[in-house]
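Extended Data, panel c. Modelled sequence:
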Amino acid sequence: MVNFGKWSDPSVPHKGWACTYIEDLGSPDQTCEMCEKEHIRYVHYMSHPDYPGELQCGCICAGNMEANLVAAQNREAKLRNRSSRKRNWPKLRGWHTSVKGNLTMTKDGYRITLFKSGQGFKASVVELTKNVPFYSKRIFKLELEAQSASFDQVEHMKENN
């Protein structure tokens, strides 16, 4: 008999799942917990009212579990696009050194500034229409790490407006 992971287990629901979160691991470092076969980079966290906890699954299994492969593919495409934009964030032409010597950029209605703090760097993101700064909570060893965190903050602020 061929084993298809939890697909072969009648005690595990096969339909009616919902995706609660999706994450980019950066490389295919995990095995799908539903089929227990595919190595996945983009993890769809799936929950079901009749199953304890969540399963971390690949796109195809997630789409089959929620009976909507297109929704799973769209989620993953959006995350792939975001990952690509984050990778290119430090290379954007808008970055320049301010009069105070800080790396800064204005993009999409936000002013992003990286500055020294203690032994490392922090980021400040200001939505220009509100002029209220958000400061990174962590101090990063490298300026590039603070720059990467500033991308995440801008994305978070866009999603919550």
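The longest helix spans residues 69-88. This feature is highlighted in the accompanying rendering.
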